[in-house]
Design a protein that fits this description.
The complex is a heterodimer of chains A (96) and B (482). Chain A has a domain of 35 residues: Histone, subunit A (Orthogonal Bundle). With 96 residues, chain A is mainly α. In chain A, β2 and β3 form a beta hairpin. Chain A has three helices and three strands. Chain B is of the alpha+beta class and 482 residues long. In chain B, 39% of the residues lie in helices and 20% in strands. Chain B contains 15 helices and 17 strands. Chain B is elongated and about 100 Å long. The complex binds zinc ion.
Chain lengths: 96, 482
């Protein structure tokens, strides 16, 4: 059974501007992935604990100790634009 | 407007005061030069991997236990995906359906009434960077560019979500204040609202009274003080009631509190912006907290503010004194506890602590002078007044000597010659002397001239160099004359 995908919504969430051709192509590619996920979901997992992480480890902690941060000039030299010690980016609107 | 009932829930964000950040070793700083406490992890550079700060997780459990939450034996981190310039990875590491703390409560007193506010959850996440909007005085809408400082990015952040149990702006304020006091007491955050290390958002809706169904809720942000929190919620309640009474509908949205205008303002929001597509964080393994760890953290909890208020009440302090003493400096509260443990009267001790001791303490703090007073000093002072060895004015002088480091109250009283004579034999002898020299005055007193008694008391006080306990002099004089 084919899975309904709002491909335009998915693209918008990922901030991707796709052409109509691309929308079609990715819709069918994504459908294959979702179809596979649907098959995995169909497996009877009664009595099995969900897997939170494939490594099977827990509680990997580091002590609360400070390590020297990077040099600010080196950090900002990687940025397309910087001003007064800050990264500078196009104006951001809350929720936009 | 008694036909509408407000329903309010509060979300609190608390920055933990750990030495290092949540997932990297950068220092947690405030007010430093921008981008001087950053590394590949908190800048979201490709390939950098997070490693969990174990202390932050313990402190979250500490908060959770103080809020009577259940600590989950197993919990996991999730990615919350959204695009914003101050979130460099394009996701925030947070928790979703398996948070560390669930199902707690906090008792809050508002308008003299105690209410139990449910805590839905408290979870671990990381703070974002800080944005500064350039141009037109920093206003978002007219900004020409946005400046970013990532010093705050990755600072351990605890989010505490209450249940919608609050019914007025005043209750919401009381909850926020009590929660702040609790967090400060736990020593896990400096919890300074003005520095943003504790931040409050409110979810507000209204419904017709005695209905169960919740109205459409509005989230309010940008409240920078307890006063603005109370005003913002009050104004939003009024706005929603106005909309509903005009036959309109409340829209689910986020609104910003505008302090100057005194009203909340709707924000431009884009459809789908709240679709965070949470999924488990593949770079971090799950957290497990065995019962033994939970018990160790529980045992380490200090006395909580609500428990302390309750204890003060049981000592016989009235609600005003309970409030003032609860708000006193922790060192002074310790002096009070020690004095009471040594048998000093709790109400009298509390009056000394919240009155004269606090006054001297504040003066000393202003001048950076050291203040020396121990619980045993306060107990001795209270006892000396009770026994009549010190008059109340002499006790104040003795106290200032004690707090200046001159010794115990008894030592100061003796050195400064403040001790009151309460020895009945000594006073009696002085009275006999005075009476023998004033036979005429005695006759007038017996004849009903009451004011003569004052004259005789004065004579006795003079004879004792002003050190006799005047109350005792009065009583003994009357005994001898009548
Ligand atoms: Zn870092």
């Amino acid at each position: 059974m084919p899975i309904e995908i709002d491909i335009a919504h998915v693209a918008r969430l990922a901030r991707l501007a796709l052409t109509p051709d691309e929308l079609d192509r990715y819709r069918s590619q994504l459908a294959v992935i979702l179809d596979h996920a649907a098959r995995v979901q169909a497996v009877d997992t009664t009595g099995l604990a969900p897997t939170a992480h494939p490594l099977g480890l827990s509680n990997v902690f580091r002590p609360d100790e400070v390590r020297p941060p990077l040099d600010v000039d080196e950090v900002l030299s990687q940025a397309p634009s910087a001003r007064d010690g800050y990264f500078e980016v196009p104006p951001a609107l809350e929720g936009a | 407007m008694s036909t509408w009932e407000p329903v309010i829930g509060i979300e609190v964000h608390v920055e933990l005061g750990t030495a290092s950040k949540m997932f990297c070793g950068c220092p947690v700083v405030f007010g430093d030069q921008p981008n001087t406490a950053v590394c590949p992890t908190c800048l979201g550079l490709p390939g950098a991997l997070p490693v969990t700060n174990g202390t932050a997780i313990e402190w979250l459990a500490r908060i959770g236990l103080a809020l009577h939450c259940r600590i989950a034996p197993f919990s996991v981190f999730h990615r919350k995906n959204y695009f914003y310039a101050d979130v460099p990875k394009n996701y925030q590491i947070s928790q979703f359906d398996l948070p560390v703390c669930v199902d707690g409560w906090l008792d809050v007193t508002a308008d003299g009434e105690e209410i139990r506010v449910g805590i839905e959850r408290a979870h671990m996440e990381e703070d974002t960077g800080k944005s500064l909007h350039q141009g037109s005085g920093g206003r978002i809408h007219a900004a020409t560019s946005t400046l970013l400082d990532f010093n705050r990015s990755g600072v351990p952040l605890v989010e505490i979500v209450s249940r919608p149990d609050l019914r007025s702006a005043a209750q919401a304020r009381a909850y926020a204040q009590d929660l702040r006091a609790l967090v400060a007491e736990l020593g896990v955050s400096d919890a300074r609202m003005e520095e943003g290390s504790i931040r409050f958002d409110a979810n507000v809706s209204v419904r017709p009274v005695s209905t169960k169904e919740l109205g459409t809720k509005v989230e309010i942000k940008n409240m920078n003080s307890f006063r603005s929190l109370e005003r913002a919620i009050g104004s939003e309640i009024d706005r929603q009631i106005g909309v509903l009474e005009d036959g309109g509908a409340v829209i689910q949205e986020t609104r910003h509190w505008d302090e100057e205008v005194g009203a909340t303002k709707g924000m431009r929001t884009k459809e789908g912006s709240s679709d965070y597509r949470y999924f488990t964080e593949p770079d971090l393994v799950p957290l497990e907290m065995p019962a033994s760890t939970v018990e160790r953290i529980r045992t380490d909890l200090p006395e909580l503010p609500a428990d302390r208020r309750h204890r003060f009440g049981q000592l016989g302090l009235d609600s005003h004194l309970v409030n003032v003493l609860s708000g006193s400096d922790p060192d002074l509260r310790r002096v009070f506890d020690e004095a009471v443990a040594l048998g000093a009267d709790p109400v009298i001790s509390a009056n000394w602590i919240t009155g004269e001791v606090t006054a001297v303490f504040r003066r000393a703090e202003a001048s950076k002078a050291e203040v020396r007073i121990r619980g045993s000093d306060l107990a001795e002072l209270v006892m000396m007044v009770k026994q009549g060895t010190l008059s109340s004015s002499a006790a104040k002088e003795a106290l200032s000597g004690v707090m200046a480091g001159e010794g115990s109250p008894r030592e100061v009283a003796e050195a400064r010659d403040l001790v009151q004579v309460s020895d009945e034999g000594l006073i009696g002898a002085a009275i006999d002397q005075v009476l023998a020299a004033n036979a005429e005055a005695i006759e007038r007193l017996r004849g009903g001239e009451e004011k003569v008694l004052g004259f005789l008391v004065g004579q006795v006080m003079r004879a004792t160099g002003g050190k006799a306990d005047p109350k005792l002099v009065n009583a003994l004089l009357r005994q001898r004359i009548t």
